[in-house]
Amino acid sequence: MNPSVAVSHTSRTWRTLALGDTRLWRTLHLDGEIDEGRAEAKALLWAERATTDGPRPSAGAAPVADEPSGVSSLVVTRAQDWSPDEFAYLCDALDLMDLVQLRRARISWHGGGVAADEQRQLQSFLSLIVSSASTLAALTIHTPAHLRILFSLPRLGHTFAHLEDLEIRSCKSSTRSTDVYLVPSFLPRFAGEQDWAPLAHLRRLVVVGPIWRLRFPDGTVVSPVLGWEDVPALEYAHLGATTPPTHWDLLSHASGTLRHLVLENFVSDHRHLDDPDVATVFPRLHTLELVNSGPLATRLLDLAVGQPRSSSAPLAPLDDAAPPLL
User: Fold this and answer.
1) What CA dihedral angle connects 35, 37, 43 and 48, to 10 degrees?
2) How many CA atoms within 13 Å lie on the side-chain side of 31?
3) C-alpha closest to that of 131 among 97, 154, 107, 164
4) In this predicted structure, what is the pLDDT of residue 154?
5) pLDDT, position 313
6) Which residues contact 166 (CB under 8 A, 6 or more apart)?
7) Total Cβ atoms within 10 A of residue 154
8) What Cα–Cα distance (Å) separates residue 180 from each residue in 60, 210, 294?
9) Model pLDDT for residues 90-116, shown as the tens digit of each residue
10) Worst-scoring range by mean pLDDT, 20-34, 53-67, 186-200, 303-317?
11) What is the pLDDT of residues 151-168, one digit of tens each?
């Protein structure tokens, strides 16, 4: 049971306190299996209880001053249990409810259930959160399909300019699964793909599994490049081998912001690339984790062994897990 609901059913006193504190209702969690037929009604109830001008018992506690009211986080799990049409209707209904401005949004399809058109559902979900583009700080997408993204990451950041935390995970290309294409039709129109503003607020980036491709009118297909200048405030990065090629830039850049780096499924040793500047980067890192990346690990360790010992703080062991930034 949802903790907020459990508290409100404990006793009359606890119910009064729970219904009077909007902070308990700011995260709306919709699950396709649990809430399939009543998701809209649940969302209406949450929106009412999370808003200061909604009905309140006379003895209820007043909301904390200077804190925004309304639903600020939306979590959707087991999206596959809604049909694409049902899910599109739900997203339209949520949009009409005006759930204030979301700061966090998360969607996942894991947990079994019937097969679903993840592509349509994902487009519906992202179209919903575009109305919160000016406030959205965290976006998480977990899909068991092969996700192929047909636009550059800065194109996403152009709309969601205040993103601080972006996590996109999908099925590895070597695993049997369906293909899902994320096309930029949910994004506002923009003339051209040049001179994007950097994702100036992005501190945490997790991209494991998706394949990024740009398709041009003449039929050309290329992989977008993500440079350090696109993510100047990045502190934590967990990147898979299909990420827009930025990992080598991260390993060679002298910026002092990056503290935690996880590289996953880098089975190539990248011998065609120059050695990264580990003497500059390693002393700045707090943790470095290499997952299924033996050749890259060997190369980096060989480079590190050849560097003179520094008085800086030592790098954490390779098997240390970097804590996520909240």
Assistant:
1) -120
2) 8
3) 97
4) 84
5) 47
6) 138, 139, 140, 156, 202, 204, 205, 206, 207
7) 21
8) 47, 10, 30
9) 999 888 876 558 999 999 998 765 667
10) 53-67
11) 888 888 888 989 999 999
Q: Which residues contact 310 (CB under 8 A, 6 or more apart)?
A: 279, 283
**How far apart (Å, rounded) are the C-alpha atoms in residues 183 and 194?**
18
What is the model's pTM? 0.82
SS (H, E, C) the chain: CCHHHHHHCCCHHHHHHHHHCHHHHCEEEEECCCCCCCHHHHHHHHHHHCCCCCCCCCCCCCCCCCCCCCCCEEEEECHHHCCHHHHHHHHHHHHHHCCCCCCEEEEECCCCCCCCCHHHHHHHHHHHHHHHCCCCCEEEEECCCEEEECCCHHHHHHHCCCCCEEEEECCCCCCCCCEEEECHHHCCCCCCCCCCCCCCCCCEEEEECCEECEECCCCCEECCCCCHHHCCCCCEEEEECCCCCCHHHHHHCCCCCCCEEEEECCCCCCCCCCCCCHHHHHHHCCEEEEECCHHHHHHHHHHHHCCCCCCCCCCCCCCCCCCCCC
What are 264-309's pLDDT values in tens digits?
A: 888 776 777 788 887 877 888 899 898 988 888 888 888 878 766 6
Neighbours of 136 (CB within 10 A): 23
* Predicted confidence (pLDDT) at residue 175 exceeds the cutoff of 70: yes
Residue type, 166: L
